[in-house]
Structure prediction request, 83 residues.
Amino acid sequence: MRKIGALAGAGDTVEDFMTLGNERFSVPELLFNPDDVGLRQPGIPETVMQSMSGVPTGLWPAMLANMIVVGGNSKMDGFMTRL
Prediction:
């Protein structure tokens, strides 16, 4: 909640809110498929695999099993299963 300049009197607060429709699903989808909006770059899973390409393939299972994902995006529903 925040006060809006002259519109808010003493002690009055005005709530700003936004209703999300399909944006809730389409925006996070761009992390996995940036091609959907014309960005020519890999998504998160492809970037992880590009990073893994510098490690000997025998170490991949151990590296992938010990990966830590942090940050706000990791809290999205289904993020870890898609990664």
